[in-house]
Amino acid sequence: MSPPGRPKGEYRSAQHEGRPLSVCARVVGALLLCASCVALAADPAKVLRLATSDIDTLDPQQWQDTYSNIVGSSIFEAMYQWDYFGRPPEPVPDTAAAAPEFSADRKTVTVRLQPGILFTDDPAFKGKPRELTADDYVYSIKRYLDPNLRGGGDPLLTDLIVGMRAVVDAARRPGARLDYHARVEGLRALDRHTLQLRLTDVNYPLVADILVGVRAVAREVVDAARGDIQARPVGTGPYRLVEWRRGTRVVLEANPRYRGVAFPASTDPRHADLIAAMQGKRLPQVGRIELSVIDEQPTRLLEFESGNLDYVELRGEAAQRLLVRGELDPALAARGIRRQTYSTNSVRSIYMNMEDPVLGGTGIAQVALRRAIALALDVEALIRVVYNGQGLPSSQIVPPGVSGFDPQSRRPPHDPVTANALLDRVGYGRRDAQNFRLQPDGRPLTLSFTIFPGTVWREIQTLFKRNLDAIGVRVEFKVVPTQDLFKEAAQGQFQMNIHGRGGGPVGLLFSTLYGPTPPEGNETRFRNAQYDRAFEGFLRAADEKTRLAHARTMTALTQVHVPIIPLLVDVENAFVQPWVMGYHRSPFGTYWKYLDIDAARRLRGAGGR
Fold first, then answer.
1. Is the pTM of the predicted complex or chain greater than 0.85?
2. FRET partner for 121 with CA separation of 20 to 30 A, picked from 133, 210, 259, 274?
């Protein structure tokens, strides 16, 4: 069993499901060695300076975007996290004391927590230290499943936990709220530091979603804030929020109550120098993290080149400016700047609103229109022109390395001739004076395409408009901020949009088209009984061969009905300043607690530019 991250939102990219958690025995000691670490931790003079897109909320049960998750994951903690060096990663204890214990039938899971873990201070605690307990995870899991919160709950997890469905259904009644005091047979704190889950069925990915995806909040804080903790994040993680100016800046400082950890272990010789440099340090070492909201990649690049950002993740043209013939510019390498390349765990796709009267539905004309759009889009040109070759064409919801990914699958070729013939055949043959197609009933055919702002997105607009013009389909682009796109998608206020969606390595991205998934996760509103059965079989499968068979069914249905057009998997570059220590790009999490800053080298670097 291998836990994934939450599938909701545009999360950042490894298949390993079906193996036991044996790695925990090898690495838990390293994670709990803080008592023997000798170096002082969390130096306020060590400031990590990074770029981010704007964040929406720091409520861990309600965030839905990558950047809120990235920032929040340094404030809040789950029971387990992904191994920093694992490829594919294994789950290792975070607040848990050891690997989870499974019953013989795999339907009972017991987790024991480390004692003595403390929340950051908050007035709700009335001046007393507040220890993390198993009851906090019971409460947080219930909150994660609350259908009245913005996330909309999780039908699959609700049905998986014995007794949870009745509590959630009661909360769905008009005017009702979730009863957090209600006893749930399958979700209990056996004692102060022991959590037990009882399940209705064997389900490897969803158990993992609880263990890795649900972060602990304190009920007293939520109650004191009357449920609104989006700007009042109180967790047990290595950092705490000290400043948040929306659209401008986020600042974190080291949590003085944090227990401290050691740098992760690895037997891979490629990591030997990295581990040696961090040996014996009590973490976190960085005392302050300053995040500037910078959406444009060219601006991020300039800030990095000026030494104002400590590392930056770039793609496309922005990344090319730091490369010479595909390799790091020798002048930058001479300064000690490092480069890591990786494919993300996020698939960038076009999402169709299946309830839209023009584009959605299962009628022959609507399905043909969606297929024609898929055939018209030139993904190879998108990767070559917009992404400067730094992308992999995708035909599936999941990226390479994730459970259910089929290496034999190929996306349909760019074929505007076939697309035109298809539209002519199903009733879109008539055109207006500008040579754009009319609907079968004679009304104008104009599609709305919601897209993010920024240079890259403008280039995507230009390419897609040219592609759709070639098949006579008029498209109007609606440019909105990141958070607005996701809000409108959840509310069904879109026709087409484009964004990336990622998750953990066990394939829960397939839930994107699962009928019972709330619209926050299934924004297309796609419902197909055959797909739903295949996804449910995928969740129950204990081996990858069986999972892949179900995944192939889901992929085939996606290509037939086209609620989503997978486009590409980003290939990104991380460029790291020479004074940053401990950096290793992990596709399943952001681990600022493992970084250190060589302040003296930073000063020398600043003086040498």
1. no
2. 210
